[in-house]
Specification:
binds zinc ion, 26% strand, 364 residues, Rossmann fold, alpha/beta, 19 strands, six-stranded parallel sheet, Quinone Oxidoreductase, Chain A, domain 1
């Protein structure tokens, strides 16, 4: 079988759209016709050369589509089913998998580092040479073959371009609040960075019933959007100190770094109150280090932790998020940015790099 896909070679070189050879679904796998794929910060790490992984590769791991065919033994899905892809096709039987945390699976993380599926294959090639798959998914393509366990049914109520966001940004951002930090009603929250994931952290904090939601971001359009989604106060980075000193001088109960850079983590941790929790949500570039003062942990009893993929099993968390969407509490529509056909992948990447508000989507 053939599929058109956006192929990434190296930082600084434009993506190329090629017809790749795609292997048919094996036992337990499904073929998904992709409808929408979001460009995530993780993809941009590769684009910017901050991560070095095998190439040529098909990036993209935040997508939704429709099942087109199923392999042998697939019981949970049928052709025509709308699905969101989870990027965690984990081994299913290690300690982390059994604890409901597939994104922590060592086998999966090895596969992600190698840009393959957990069984070390990719099912993709061009002129007989292996083409790799970003984040164990490779969704920037017309068709993708994945394990049925990571094609999560989304029902009919959510348009696929909105559903795509559930596959990474929404699960990550809302999950950071609801499942990792477990923010309590009435608490105070700081969100550093109001990009795709940060906006979902803001929404998660509103859903959790936080009384104060402070959001800091250098871009005005993003701050305005954060206000529409539930932020009670916003600041640009230079204005945060005076805002916090005036409004929340002791800091917040929960701080989230939705960027994942040492400087933004430092900001989030600096404004975490004594005994409060600071959560790193954004994935840092390789090799970054934090400079920490142990006194913050001992005398001030602050907690610094991180979250991957919403600290939940996507198969369990997705229905929870869908409930919030259907009840009108979780807004996906306003999170959509410009969308591009697959042939214009380079324009899509450029838009994502420029920081336009909303998730940049590719419609393969
Ligand atoms: Zn992502
Ligand atoms: Zn595992």
């Amino acid at each position: 079988m053939k599929t058109k896909a956006a192929v990434f070679y190296e930082a600084g070189r434009p993506f190329e759209v090629h017809e790749l050879d795609l292997e048919e679904p094996r036992v337990g796998e499904v073929l998904v016709r992709m409808a929408a794929v979001g460009i995530c910060g993780t993809d941009l790490h590769s684009v910017k050369g901050e991560w070095t992984r095998p190439t040529p590769t098909v990036l993209g791991h935040e997508g939704a589509g429709v099942v087109e065919a199923v392999g042998e033994g697939v019981a949970s899905l049928r052709p025509g089913d709308a699905v969101v892809l989870s990027w965690a096709p984990s081994c299913g039987d290690c300690e982390d998998c059994r604890r409901g945390r597939p994104a922590r699976c060592v086998t999966l993380n090895r596969a992600i580092a190698a840009s393959t599926l957990p069984d070390a294959t990719t099912g993709l090639s061009l002129d007989g040479e292996t083409v790799y798959r970003g984040t164990a998914t490779g969704a920037l393509a017309e068709r993708v073959v994945v394990s049925e366990r990571v094609a999560l049914p989304v029902g009919d109520g959510v348009p696929l371009e909105q559903a795509a966001l559930l596959g990474c940004a929404a699960l990550t951002g809302v999950g950071a609040v609801l499942f990792a930090a477990r923010v309590e009603p009435g608490s105070s929250v700081l969100v550093v960075g109001a990009g795709g994931v940060g906006q979902f952290v803001v929404q998660g904090a509103r859903i959790a019933g936080a009384a104060e939601i402070v959001c800091v971001d250098p871009l005005e359009a993003r701050r305005e959007q954060a206000v529409r989604l539930g932020a009670t106060k916003v600041a640009e980075p230079d204005g945060l100190t005076s805002l916090m000193k005036a409004e929340l001088p002791d800091g917040v109960d929960y701080a989230f770094d939705a960027v994942g850079d040492p400087a933004t983590t430092e900001t989030a941790f600096r404004w975490t109150r004594n005994g409060g929790v600071c959560v790193i949500v954004g994935l840092p570039a390789a090799g970054k280090r934090l400079d920490l003062d142990p006194v913050d942990f001992v005398r001030r009893e602050r907690i610094l932790t991180g979250t991957i993929y919403g600290s939940a099993d996507p198969a369990v968390a997705l229905p929870v998020l869908l409930e919030h969407v259907q009840a009108g509490r979780l807004d996906l529509a306003s999170q959509l940015g410009p969308s591009f056909p697959l042939d214009r992948i380079n324009d899509a990447i450029e838009a994502a790099l420029s920081g336009v508000p909303g998730r940049v989507l590719v419609r393969p």
